[in-house]
Fold this protein.
Amino acid sequence: MRLAKIDWALGAVLAVMAVGVSACGSSSNSSTSASLPTSIGAGEGQLNLVAWEGYTQPEWVKPFEKQTGCVVHAKYAGSSDEMVTLMRQGGGSQYDMVSASGDASLRLIRGGDVAEMNVALVPDWKNFIPQLQSPSHNTVDGKHYGISLQWGPNILMYNPKAISPAPTSWAAIYDPKYKGQISVPNNPIQIADAALYLSKTKPSLGISDPYELTEAQLSAAAELLKAQRPLIKKYWALASDEIELFKNNDASIGAAWPYQQSTLQADKVAVKSLIPSEGATGWADTWMLSAHAKHPNCAYKWVNWVSTAKVQAEQALSYGETPANTKACAVMETLSKGSCGVYHANAPSAYFDSIKFWKTPVKECGNGQNDCMDYTAWQQKWTEVTG
């Protein structure tokens, strides 16, 4: 899915120092500052990843393998639920790392599935935007359970040849006139998109946070989605599913990620996108280390590699997302003039704060009450919606 084929000189990304590897694989339940690795040992020869589609493209994987000797094996997941399930397979030792979004990261932390990481071993961490150095979705009690990567909004994508006039609101994906042309993710967190829409169109519901919903608010969002179900062409599991729908003119409008848009435009398919008037949900992803990783040194080498400005810029341009590393902006401009602004890499913090980033729904509401519905309830509602 990477659009640009970019050759760039390989450089030393980290110093390889001899160290026992057992410390790198400490459990997140038991690891402390004293038990964290203080240096990175020799690579174990391979790295097994669970990733979003498009996060392990040859443009930066092949140079990484050449530089480190760590051969990457990636398994693409279609949802955060699938990522959590995969990271728990085989006693948690089948995969070394996962590119978890905020609606999975806390579940992995609380479940003891991921290990605390030493950010001092990631030189570019200090160059991350402040909001992604110690965010609440991967940092608990001052412990870092992963290294932030990229972030961006969930967008409304449409075919301008089929959808006219251009939509301005999320109302379009609930509009019966587009019956049979709509695609949305097959993911319980999609309930948050409905809740965000309702927070603007039905303020009487009192929704202030689309991830903190009372029983009545969750039911209202579910009813909206049930009414939408007959209009849906397909609930997509992988980004490539939606790409094929638009390529084949089986879908004309839907909720998407920037990756789908960039891939389709590279293939000369007519698509445009926008953040509708009601705003957008979004993701902020984290590379997290399994508490039972078999290849922890390769894992640390990987997060160092993908944290550099060059690789962050490549991934940002290929996927259509925003890098965590502030120094990536200048690299993006050398690769594609104007791209830094297009992908908001130099945007003020207000833009970041305007996106309602995915997070795991829990019973504790932000207002001090405990009457919000947890993720299990969301999963049950989503099953009711999709059948």
Summary: Residues 1-32 have pLDDT under 50 and may be disordered. DSSP finds 13 helices and 14 strands in the chain.
